[in-house]
Write a structure and sequence with these properties.
Layout lengths: L2 H19 L12 E3 L2 E18 L9 E14 L3 E8 L9 E9 L5 E8 L5 H4 L12 H10 L4 E10 L2 E11 L9 E13 L3 E14 L9 E6 L12 E22 L2 E16 L2 E19 L5 E2 L4 E2 L17 E15 L2 E18 L2 E13 L5 E13 L1
Antiparallel strand pairs: 1-2, 2-3, 2-20, 3-4, 4-5, 5-6, 6-7, 7-8, 8-9, 9-10, 10-12, 11-12, 12-13, 13-14, 14-17, 15-16, 17-18, 18-19, 19-20
Length: 405
């Protein structure tokens, strides 16, 4: 049995398991939460099956088809509303992915509104980055969001963080190292921060504005190698590509950072959001330093056709998925939750002597939740990549089946 068939079998078993534990309780209780003696245990899963490809490309696009994009399972535990523990294992992507610890963190929440966190987790940085993967409007984040968060924040990051949050604000400061897992280097050192405010919050209108920054003052280096980093990303829908269109290659660095603005406006069922980032990389050139500037931005709009629109969560200062206003955990309003989205994005990795390519992408996406924990998405993308190693002009289609709780 091939690895892909093996994953498909596991995915089917997971779906059957979800059906077996389904009960006609409240919408949020499809998967039970276990409580005893002041301890609450919430099972966690984000399992995705991606199927798609590139109907039209300038050059052949090898390594596409179907894969388990994310296979993350575990649990989160709250003890007497004072301490939170997270233990989540990453089994994917499959086939070909390396298993690793996705989250292993401890948080003290007993001194509200402060939260103190240490371990392996995702530090607060950027609006789209802080949306849980299963809550994003599109199957994958914009390229500039992915590239910037991978500098010193993002998932599986070794970090400590202090945050404070409320109905109209969110502030977080983190000290981070490398990412966890095989083949990763943990000797990087950086500071990360995020400041978000909500100047307008009414029943129908919501406005969010924020500023994020990160600075790596000690760049990671392998044994016998100098400090270096690579900036790269797949197109904003990866179904197993074996090469990245945006790719600077390894750059010798003395330091690197990114700074960005984020904004979002929600009016009834309509949500606009966007971010813009500037990356500053100090490249080591013999006895001097060459300053490189990379940049990018995106803007998107989402409309909830059926169901209760996305809501803002102060803990992450980001938006959740649409929900059902009724006590229904499947086929909300008789047909399920439906959301339509459109996005335009740019990412420019060309500066001075470095040409990592410049990408522009237009995307349209339709999300359907027949159940609260089951999401089915269909996305179309048109993109162009100028310069770089692989100039490209492509049309792509991707579908995704996701179980998330």
């Amino acid at each position: 049995m091939s690895a892909l068939r093996h994953y498909a079998l596991r995915f089917s078993i997971a779906c059957v398991g979800v059906s077996l534990i389904h009960t006609p309780a409240a919408f949020a209780d499809t998967i039970p939460t276990f409580k005893f003696d002041g301890i609450t245990i919430k099972p966690y899963a984000t399992d995705q099956l991606d199927i798609g490809g590139f109907p039209k490309t300038s050059q052949p696009a090898p390594g596409v088809g179907a894969r388990g994009g994310r296979i993350r399972n575990g649990a989160r535990v709250t003890i007497h509303n004072q301490v939170e523990l997270g233990g989540i294992w990453d089994f994917g992507p499959a086939p070909g992915g390396q298993m690793r610890l996705f989250e292993g963190q401890i948080s003290y929440i007993g001194l509200k509104p402060f939260v103190f966190t240490a371990g392996i987790f995702k530090p607060s940085f950027g609006l789209e980055s802080m949306q849980a993967q299963g809550d994003t409007a599109f199957i994958e984040r914009s390229s500039i969001s992915t590239i910037t968060r991978n500098i010193a924040a993002g998932i599986e990051r070794q970090a400590v963080q202090i945050e404070v949050h409320g109905k109209r604000y969110h502030l977080a400061i983190s000290g981070t190292a490398g990412t966890a897992g095989p083949g990763e280097n943990g000797n990087q050192r950086a500071l990360v921060f995020r400041l978000v405010g909500v100047p307008i919050r009414t029943q129908d209108l919501f406005f969010h504005v924020g500023f994020s920054g990160e600075w790596v003052f000690k760049v990671a280096h392998g044994r016998g190698e100098g400090p270096a980093a690579t900036f790269s990303d797949y197109p904003e829908m990866n179904v197993g590509l074996t090469s990245k269109y945006l790719n600077t290659g390894k750059i010798d660095l003395r330091s690197v950072g990114a700074f960005g603005l984020e904004a979002a406006a929600a009016w009834k069922r309509l949500l606009f959001q966007g971010e813009a980032y500037e990356i500053i990389a100090n490249k080591a050139v013999e006895n001097t330093t060459q300053k490189l500037h990379f940049s990018g931005w995106y803007a998107q709009a989402s409309y909830t056709l059926v169901g209760k629109p996305r809501s803002w969560k102060s803990r992450t200062a980001a938006f959740s998925s649409p929900t059902c206003a009724k006590n229904q955990n499947y086929l909300c309003n008789g047909i399920g939750l439906i959301e339509a989205s459109a996005r335009y994005s740019e990412a420019n990795l060309r500066s001075a002597s470095v040409d990592g390519g410049q990408q522009k992408a237009w995307s349209a996406n339709l999300n359907w939740w027949p159940m609260d924990i089951l999401k089915i998405a269909l996305q179309y993308e048109y993109g162009t990549i100028k310069g770089g190693r692989i100039p490209e002009n492509f049309h792509a289609i991707l579908s995704m089946v996701q179980i998330k709780f």
